[in-house]
From TrEMBL:
PANTHER family attached to this UniProt entry: 2-OXOGLUTARATE (2OG) AND FE(II)-DEPENDENT OXYGENASE SUPERFAMILY PROTEIN (PTHR10209:SF850), OXIDOREDUCTASE, 2OG-FE II OXYGENASE FAMILY PROTEIN (PTHR10209)
Keywords recorded for this protein, A-Z: Iron, Metal-binding, Oxidoreductase
An MF annotation (GO) of this entry: dioxygenase activity
Native source species: Brassica campestris
Cited Gene3D superfamilies: B-lactam Antibiotic, Isopenicillin N Synthase, Chain
Listed InterPro entries: DIOX_N (IPR026992), IPNS-like_FE2OG_OXY (IPR044861), IPNS-like_sf (IPR027443), Oxoglu/Fe-dep_dioxygenase_dom (IPR005123)
Protein name in the entry: Fe2OG dioxygenase domain-containing protein
Family the UniProt entry places it in: Belongs to the iron/ascorbate-dependent oxidoreductase family.
PROSITE patterns found in the cross-reference section: FE2OG_OXY
Amino acid sequence: MGRLDEAFIQAPEHRPITHLTNSGDFIFSDEIPTIDLSSLQDPNYDKTTIATEVGKACERWGFFQVINHGLPLDLRRRVENTAAEFFNLTAEEKRRLRRDEVNPMGYHDEEHTKNVRDWKEIFDFFLQDPTIVPATPEPEDTDKRELTNQWPQHPADFREICQEYAREVEKLAFKILELISISLGLPGDLLSGYFQEQTSILRFNHYPPCPNPELALGVGRHKDGGALTVLAQDSVGGLQVGRRSDGEWIPVKPIPDALIINIGNCMQVWTNDKYWSAEHRVVVNTSKERFSVPFFFFPSHETNIEPLEELLSEENPPCYKKCNWGKFFVSRNRSDFKKLEVEDIQIDHFKA
Ligand SMILES: O=C(O)CCC(=O)C(=O)O
Ligand SMILES: [Fe+2]
């Protein structure tokens, strides 16, 4: 990416405060909960204990890490290696897989978050190929569009490894979804129906070293749109979470082999603001490149997102109006593709 041109520069109030030691390493915080999922492997185990822990973390932080999560570690290593190999291809080779106006999947190095360019390059693919979405964000337009993946020829086993990882991370996402439902006092399978046809995406993020990490961000502050995100990060660090209680930016400590789970907008709406979709961002540094692999667990395009009836009462009336996920998805994809002069769509726009 080389030079930091103007498009990357954050407004002064959004420039990163990095927590660095004297030797230039990040200082991390232990505040964000870590939850051990090992007892899920015992089919006779009562899930309510873990579900309660998950619920508390969703409420206070909207973020937690999981250990002993059952995702095979050798597969994770293979994914990390193949992603690094992919980003090592020449710019020309990567740009052959460039995403465009019609198809948002593939390679992209010009993503903007809140209209400022991110210091990163990415590769995206859908779990379901093809994935059906609305043709346009216009509410009246009922046309649909089929979106497909694009794959590189090298590394040779790239596609196979990606798809194997996607299947495993999806299994974990369904387990977390079940724990969240239980934590709300609801049947464990209440939400899973929304994901039979899904619009989920797996992404590889590569953050190269940045000459001016005090001015730019790897990803600008944002909330994830979907139900939840399962994120694998390497040991470099840089992810920061806005604390629910006061908005303070808290750096997330890399724990070897752990996965980070965060709540997205859909879950915040379903739970009528009980669970929190936290703002987060990524800071970069001058010397170390960083890789991360988020899995965005997105429902089917037909899903209408609104507070779950089971959780509403006279004392807890709905805080949101109904929003169609497909339209939200398409609108977001359009606005982060181009640097538009308008703010991209947010759940707050659906506040009742
Ligand atoms: O790289 C990370 O740690 C987080 C990336 C992220 O928030 C995103 O891709 O939505
Ligand atoms: Fe994110």
